[in-house]
Write a structure and sequence with these properties.
The complex is a heterodimer of chains A (133) and B (556). By secondary structure, chain A is α/β, with parallel strands linked by helices. Chain A has helices spanning 21-32, 46-56, 70-83, 102-107, 120-130, and strands spanning 8-12, 36-39, 60-65, 90-95, 113-114. Chain B has 556 residues and is of the alpha/beta class. In chain B, the strands form 2 sheets. Chain B has a 5-stranded parallel β-sheet. The chains are: A alpha/beta (133), B alpha/beta (556).
């Protein structure tokens, strides 16, 4: 992508999980780093999320789950993206994701896992250097 | 020349001759010392910081107005606080087993964590429940699940706290129905439902209906319990989640008490007598890392509540005026890095709660930044508070830190800052208008971001995270909730729907809907429906048709 274009991100909370402190702090940090951030709010179904991606065409989709539903919901989102021929969006995930679940989620196409204690700068840098377009 | 003037001279002499000399040319650890509420902390507190000699007005004796020193006269000399570990996962059978394990290890009260699908009022089979069933708490759909959850536990002997908000009236009704099957009348039941919807809009975000009908359900519950379940705490006004969402200690204090006043006003508006319902209101606070700040927060909370209840709302009964609270240590303070260190954090936080005079305590498990607690971690957490209780001696005298210049100064300061927040909330038109204007949400989001920035820029240290990090640390065994829970739960729900009297269930749901359109108390209708095994999802579904659902505005 050209150096001047702003990176566009959809930050979202899949499922019923109401823990939105992390995603809001991260969203603000990404915005402060010069990115355009759209925060969808809570309780998004995989359909809601993929529809938002289709409409907004972001560079990055940032998911946040602290409910334990990641192994069910993340693969569903990835499958729906694929069905809609979206393969150039970087999908990252934050929250409580046990280490042992990471390989499974990677197999499903997710990259970038940011658990508790991650410095905000690390997330910003990861996104900047792993964009798919 | 007063005694204090003399003292001031002595202090100035010390500052000039001793302190200044000793620190000359040396650097302090920080330019400024600030607690988590951004209050600047001096190096020394003296009688000058608490110069007003108004002991009786500000502190009083424990169990007496303004209750600063404690809710009860002898506090923990009679009995320790209730040790109440929040637990719930998977199926009702699994959680029943965990409860029996905890009771077997000396726990004195139960505390139920519900599955998210239950909290939001969806059936386990609903598309929205996919992947969520039993993950964050025990899956409850119908009375059948509640019967299994409390199987073999005598509900006349134990008190139960249920962390449930939007569907609180339904779960309370189920509890009453289970007790009835055990042969225990409602007037003998002891426990708490969280039932605090205002903090859901503000912080925890597990709302269903808009604020106005939600407040009606809460007032209905208060009214019903006042008459028929008199030993039940009808609401646990919670700062815990406000703090977890990122607020400071002062914001937690102020927003929680503001919510409390809003419930009092709503019940008075319904025509209830304050001294009939106020004794059954209780509170729930967080205990975070800054030790003294937390202790002062609890002391300030008791004094503020007492003053407002007596002077603003004209409560007469002592029980209406004294604030009692549960404490949970701060989940958000736990680290995924070197998780065993969390045992130490929890110890300090639990100690602060006890020194602040808590009535019950949940100490977090050290693995909570990684998963739901394993049995081993849950046992260490319980042991932590047992050690505070039985070994440390801190419970042997009441409010042992009172009279400390620093403690009294900080208690006053936090009270003042909370009062300033009450004024701002009033200017916005009260709690519900302030929610609609995103006041609390913005305050909390700003504080959360500031806290994280302070850690990221090394202005605040978290051991193992931004100070003394280890490259490698051992991860404990983690608890895994099997996906099979969902299938099991859906099967049970389907089975119930086959065997219950569906015609009668539908009739009762229709009656509930009709009643919801009017102003009648809804609890008897809900109770009738749960006894016929109507599901939480069906009852919430019926009420949604009348009340609608809440839509949150997004702020970052």
């Amino acid at each position: 992508m050209s150096e001047n274009r702003r990176i566009k991100i959809i930050a979202t909370k899949p499922g019923l999980d109401g823990h939105d402190r992390g995603i809001k702090v991260v969203a603000r940090a990404l915005r402060d780093a010069g990115m355009e951030v759209i925060y969808t709010g809570l309780h998004q179904t995989p359909d809601d999320i993929v529809n938002a991606v289709i409409q907004e065409d972001p560079d990055v989709l940032a998911l946040s789950l602290l409910s334990g539903a990641h192994n069910t919901l993340c693969p569903m989102i990835m499958k729906l993206l694929k069905e809609n021929n979206i393969d150039d969006v970087l999908v990252v995930v934050g929250g409580i994701i046990p280490k042992k679940d990471v390989p499974f989620l990677q197999e499903n196409g997710l990259t970038g896992f940011f658990g508790p204690g991650t410095p905000l700068q690390k997330i910003v840098e990861f996104i900047k250097s792993n964009l798919k377009r | 020349m007063t005694e204090l003037d003399d003292f001031f001279k002595e202090l100035t002499k010390w500052e000039e001759n001793v302190l200044e000399k000793s620190i000359k040319g040396k650097e302090m650890r920080q330019m400024q010392f600030k607690n988590l509420s951004d209050i600047e902390i001096k190096g020394l507190y003296t009688p000058l910081d608490i110069k007003e000699k108004i002991y009786m007005e500000k502190l009083g004796f424990p169990g007496q107005f303004p209750f600063t020193r404690g809710a009860y006269p002898s506090m923990y000399r009679g009995q320790f606080w209730t040790m109440r570990q929040f637990a719930g996962m998977g199926t009702a059978e699994q959680t029943n087993k965990r409860y029996k394990f905890l009771i077997g290890h000396g726990q004195t009260g139960l505390s139920v964590a519900f599955s998210l699908h239950t909290i939001y009022g969806y059936e386990a089979s609903d598309k929205r429940a996919l992947g969520e069933v039993g993950k964050e708490g025990v899956a409850i759909d119908t009375l059948k699940d509640m019967e299994i959850l409390f199987d073999g536990i005598d509900l006349s002997k134990i008190s139960t706290s249920m962390t449930i908000n939007a569907p609180a009236s339904i779960l309370l009704s189920m509890y009453i129905a289970v007790a009835e099957k055990q042969g225990i009348p409602p007037e003998k039941l002891r426990g708490t439902i969280q039932n605090d919807i205002l903090k859901e809009y503000i912080a925890q975000k597990s709302w269903i209906f808009p604020p106005e009908p939600s407040m009606r359900l809460i007032v209905d519950t208060i009214e019903y319990c006042t008459k028929y379940v008199p030993q039940w705490y009808t609401i646990s006004i919670s700062g815990y989640h406000i703090r977890e969402a990122g607020s400071t200690a002062v914001q937690e204090l102020a927003f929680t008490l503001a919510d409390g006043f809003a419930y009092v006003e709503a019940a008075i508006e319904k025509g209830l007598n304050i001294d009939d319902f106020a004794p059954r209101l209780s509170f729930f606070f967080n205990s975070h890392n800054n030790f003294f700040e937390e202790i002062c927060k609890y002391r300030a909370a008791r004094r503020i509540w007492a003053n407002h209840m007596r002077d603003k709302y004209n409560a007469k009964k002592k029980e209406s005026i004294r604030l009692r609270f549960h404490t949970q240590t701060a989940g958000v303070s736990l680290t995924a890095q070197e998780p065993e260190n969390n045992i130490v954090r929890v110890t300090l936080q639990g100690l602060a709660a006890v020194l602040g005079g808590t009535q019950s305590l949940h100490t977090n498990s050290f693995d909570e930044a990684l998963c739901l607690p394993t049995e081993k971690a849950a046992k260490i957490a319980l042991r932590t508070q047992q050690i505070i209780a039985y070994e440390s001696g801190v419970a042997d005298t009441v409010d042992p830190l009172s009279g400390s210049y620093y403690i009294e100064w900080l208690t006053d300061k936090m009270e003042q800052q909370a009062e300033e927040y009450f004024k701002r909330i009033e200017e916005l038109g009260g709690v519900i208008p302030a929610i609609h204007k995103n006041f609390f949400q913005t305050e909390i989001a700003n504080a959360a971001y500031k806290y994280q920035r302070e850690i990221d820029t090394n202005k605040r240290f978290i051991i193992g995270v931004n100070k003394f990090q280890s490259e490698k640390f051992e991860l404990p065994d983690l608890l895994d909730i099997e996906e099979a829970v969902s299938e099991h739960q859906i099967n049970r729900l389907n089975e119930i729907k086959k065997t219950r009297d569906n015609e009668r269930v539908n009739m009762l749901l229709a009656k509930l809907k009709e009643a919801a359109k009017g102003t009648e108390n809804l609890i008897p209708y809900i109770l009738d429906a749960v006894k016929e095994y109507a599901s939480v999802g069906e009852i919430i579904g019926a009420l949604k048709e009348v009340f609608g659902v809440y839509k949150e505005q997004q702020i970052i």
